[in-house]
Amino acid sequence: MSDKVVTRFAPSPTGYLHIGGARTALFNWLFAKHTGGKMLLRIEDTDRERSTDVATAAILDGLSWLGLGWDGEPVSQFERAQRHREVAEELVRNGKAYRCYATQAELEEMREKARAEGRPPRYDGRWRDRDPSEAPAGVKPAIRIKAPTDGETIVRDRVQGDVKFPNKDLDDFIILRSDGNPTYMHAVVVDDHDMGVTHIIRGDDHLTNAARQTIIYNAMGWDVPVMAHIPLIHGPDGAKLSKRHGALGVEAYRAMGYLPEALRNYLARLGWSHGDDEVMSTAQMIEWFEIEDVNKGAARFDYQKLEALNGFHMRQSDDGELLEQFIATLPYLEQPGAIPREPDAAQRAMLLAALPGLKERAKTLVELADSAQYLFVQRPLSLDEKAAQILDGDARSVIAALLPDFEALGEWSADTTEAVVRAYAEKAGLKLGKVAQPLRAALTGRATSPGVFDVLAVLGREESLGRLRDQST
């Protein structure tokens, strides 16, 4: 086995990249980066009825958006079926596997007998030592591995510790079906060996598979990769994460306005920790990640934590980078509202100027899009319910009284407009809020927005004055 660490992520393309799969990919990626190794990608597309090109594209797209790049070209498991068959035949030649001619009726009879005796259903080994000359004519055999009949198979797991499986429970499982197609159990071993995989990091629902796969490795005389079976993700109620918890594909989190770096940070903390650190940069996660630090127990998915973490990452983001992410996300948002899907240079400049005020209040890019609506709405603005209540007769009079002072301004900025408002409030004997609230409602059509002087600066002189004139009468 080479010294260089090689991990792999091996999704089945029967749907989108779901959040549990994304975390498995992340752990593989972090471990590869941490050790200076590689992460390979294998598409386990042997289930031809359920595997689709659309799902494969969605998985690749989801990984790319999350920033989890892989080394080399993705490998198709289905395209390697001939190699899987060759290894199965080699095992037969070496006396490590055998052809089994048991019929469906016989297998059903074994299952019924086991059920009647209160045992788990197991193949009874009837073709294990029979002479091939006894094979019935016209029956296509399956190939079964010769599993050890006594003792135990031990999976030495970096997360779960040593897990022991009595060999009598593992039976002689099929590695090549009678139609010539390899089983998942067999294909995975051959692929991992041929791809040079040194570390297998995957969900702990594969733990029993690990014991069976170890039998194939041993039969071929191959090194068994280091195993690390990570706990599944549960919903807030402690049950396995499912659709009713909102266990969605990664693309749904993009549409909900989460940043890839925030989702990476959140997923890394699901089942793995580094002291009390909640907020981590990707560089820190790579530096700190050790597979032994993954918990044995299931982690609980918490949308509120994800949202809070996302808000923190947004506030920490460079405005230029956040703008690029926001614009890249616009096509995926269900309701961008008045915001153009492809902002032009002037619109981009306006968004960039508004970002410092917008990102302070938003926890997702969807909330950012919502609070940025005021930049792009057409005059005259339609007012929401609260803004309409604010803009009563007195409020409109305040706006009308302020207009000449605004119109007389030489330089238009947050500072100069603030000075005008403060001077007017003092002269009129009003609290600042009594002037700022009507201005906010008139300028944005809403009762809440970024700081009103920032709004005036971002909208600029002409648009601000136009909106104020609309609401001053």
TrEMBL record:
Subunit note: Monomer.
Residue sites binding ATP per the record: 243
Lineage: Bacteria, Pseudomonadati, Pseudomonadota, Alphaproteobacteria, Hyphomicrobiales
Gene that this sequence comes from: gltX
CDD domains from the UniProt entry: GluRS_core
A GO molecular-function annotation: glutamate-tRNA ligase activity
Keywords for the protein's UniProt record, in alphabetical order: Aminoacyl-tRNA synthetase, ATP-binding, Cytoplasm, Ligase, Nucleotide-binding, Protein biosynthesis
Organism from which the protein derives: Neoaquamicrobium sediminum
InterPro entries (UniProt xref): aa-tRNA-synth_I_cd-bd, aa-tRNA-synth_I_codon-bd_sub2, aa-tRNA-synth_I_CS, aa_tRNA-synth_I_cd-bd_sf, Glu-tRNA-ligase_bac/mito, Glu/Gln-tRNA-synth, Glu/Gln-tRNA-synth_Ib_cat-dom, GluQ/Sye
Motif segment ('KMSKS' region): 240-244
Domain Glutamyl/glutaminyl-tRNA synthetase class Ib catalytic positions: 4-307
Catalytic activity as recorded in UniProt: tRNA(Glu) + L-glutamate + ATP = L-glutamyl-tRNA(Glu) + AMP + diphosphate
Protein name according to UniProt: Glutamate--tRNA ligase
Compositional bias (Basic and acidic residues): 111-133
